[in-house]
Specification:
With 461 residues, this protein is an alpha/beta fold. It has two domains: 173 residues, 3-Layer(aba) Sandwich (Rossmann fold); 254 residues, Four Helix Bundle (Hemerythrin (Met), subunit A). Strands 3-2-1-4-5-6-7-8 form an eight-stranded mixed beta sheet, with helices on both faces. Helix 5 links the parallel strand 5 and strand 6. Helix 10 runs antiparallel to helix 12, helix 12 crosses helix 14 and helix 14 runs antiparallel to helix 16. The longest helix has 32 residues. The protein is elongated, with a radius of gyration of 31 Å. The N and C termini lie far apart (65 Å). The N terminus is likely disordered. It binds NADP nicotinamide-adenine-dinucleotide phosphate.
């Protein structure tokens, strides 16, 4: 063997080592899928099962034997069995003494039992070292190899060495172990697979509420009012005009709601004179779902762009333009060119295009694959500085679109202002507060507070 090859051996000492035998209790879906993956990664596998007969479903190179026999062949035993059947382990307690038991189980409901399944296992077999792992990986993903989305394996346990050995197996399978600490973390880990888009709940419910409100608001102004007072049927607006009004309104409101908790947090910190007191729960939760709020806002902004692009091909728009041209021709009068109108129209479109471009940039940088490749300062620069610039551009786009409309009494139908005016309330509040926070008399103490300074240290919790 030449020098180079011996160096390679030194760099990868385990490559040529035979892997230790691992025992799997249970030949169900998960036991088989995990066993197959482990065999592919070089682990000899023995199954402990109620039936020692092998079937064509069981991985070819694995042995199947009784639980007691299988447990004696390995020091690591993965329990791929539902929690309600764990009782069968009690008579095996002596054989399992000192062994590492890996609990992979999940429940049907969040916090279904008072203690986690892993803690329950540790109570049933007190002499064993219980480690929680693999519960967030599905049998299907293991079999089909589509593990990209779920490469992380959360691991926890009280015995450091046992946890380390399980994490070595996780790595050998091409997955990424994430140490969550002691077995106390098992309950939280068991709840992960049961959560249904937890961070998306608030943004989606809020969007649904706002859609409903603005739909009826626009319906009243654009369809019901003309029908009642002018006997005109504008019900076709429900298809495009009203959605194209609601989408930008939602995009702007939701984008401003991404930045509102930040300025509220700044006000609270300035008021309290410390950063060491917890924010109210609602503010904490709101801050945690800012990314999702931003992405929902981006989705509405994209819809607005699509709806706007098809305006020229709409029948109503083409009819309106041609009838105006014909009436001008018949009366032999042309509308004079208005430089002001040209400026207003071009500026609001330009502001919208730039705002949407930055909005997309924000969306891209929030993708984990991108955000993982920028440092904290770069991420903050994009999300905070560019984020505020996006909010300014989108607010300006809406303001210029409205122009002087808010001064005209005819735009207040049934005393209701145009919907776009309502959409400006929160963004303007956020921008005004942010502007005030930039002044040195507020910015300086805030920066100090964020660096750990306290006005009245005795009041902090
Ligand atoms: P499964 O297909 O129902 O298999 C469970 C196995 O448990 C059975 O095949 C059986 O194996 C054994 N078993 C059943 N009743 C028993 C009893 N009374 N006493 C002893 N052993 C018994 O379930 P699974 O989908 O493989 O899930 C197994 C565990 O993995 C569960 O705790 C589950 O929460 C967890 N998990 C599953 C997935 C998944 O995608 N399926 C993902 C993550 C975690 P024998 O016939 O060989 O005895």
């Amino acid at each position: 063997m030449n020098k180079n090859s011996s160096n390679i051996m030194a760099l990868a000492p385990n490559t040529f080592n035979k892997k230790e035998t691992v025992c799997l209790f249970g030949t169900g879906d998960f036991g088989r899928a995990l066993g197959q993956k482990m065999i592919q990664s070089g682990y000899p596998i023995v199954y402990g099962s109620r039936s020692t007969q092998t079937s064509s479903l069981i991985p070819k190179d694995a042995q199947v034997m009784s639980h007691a026999e299988a447990a004696q062949k390995a020091s690591i035993i993965i329990i791929a069995i539902q929690r309600q059947h764990y009782n069968f382990l009690t008579p095996l307690a002596e054989i399992l003494h000192g062994k590492i038991l890996v609990d992979v189980s999940n429940n049907l409901k969040i916090n279904q039992y008072p203690e986690s399944n892993a803690e329950y296992l540790a109570q049933l077999v007190p002499g064993a070292k219980v480690v929680k792992a693999f519960n967030t990986v599905s049998a299907w993903a293991l079999q089909s190899g589509t593990l990209d989305a779920s490469r992380q394996v959360f691991v926890c346990g009280d015995d450091m060495e046992a946890k380390q050995r399980v994490m070595d197996i996780v790595r050998a399978l091409g997955l990424t172990p994430l140490d969550k600490g002691s077995l106390l973390a098992a309950q939280e880990i068991e709840n992960y697979p049961l959560q249904l888009f937890p961070m998306w709940k608030f943004p989606i419910l809020l969007s649904l509420g706002l859609i409903t409100f603005f739909f009826f608001y626009c319906l009243t102004r654009r369809v019901i009012y003309p029908y009642v007072y002018e006997n005109q049927d504008f019900s076709f607006s429900i298809a495009i005009s009203i959605p194209n009004q609601i989408c930008p309104i939602l995009a702007l409101i939701l984008l401003s709601l991404v930045y509102l908790p930040g300025v509220l947090a700044a006000i609270i910190q300035l008021y309290r004179g410390t950063k060491y007191r917890r924010f109210p729960d609602w503010l904490d939760k709101w801050m945690l779902c800012r990314k999702q709020l931003g992405l929902v806002a981006l989705a509405f902004a994209s819809l607005h762009v699509l709806y706007t692009l098809i305006i020229p091909i709409r029948y109503f728009v083409r009819w309106k333009i041609s009838s105006r041209i014909i009436s001008q021709a018949l009366s032999n009068k042309t509308e004079p060119f208005s430089n002001t109108n040209a400026w207003i129209s071009d500026s609001y479109v330009a502001l919208g295009i730039l705002g949407f471009f930055l909005f997309i940039l924000l969306g891209i940088t929030s993708l984990p694959s991108v955000s993982n490749n920028v440092n904290w300062r770069e991420f903050r620069f994009v999300q905070s500085k560019l984020g505020y610039l996006t909010l300014i551009l989108c607010t300006a786009h809406t303001l210029v679109y409205g122009g002087k409309q808010f001064l005209s009494p005819s735009s207040y139908i049934w005393y209701l202002p145009s919907a776009y005016m309502l959409s400006l309330i929160i963004p303007c509040i956020v921008l005004v507060i942010k502007f005030l926070l930039v002044f040195p008399c507020l910015d300086k103490p805030l920066t100090q507070i964020r660096q750990g300074w306290e006005r009245n240290p005795e009041y902090s919790e």
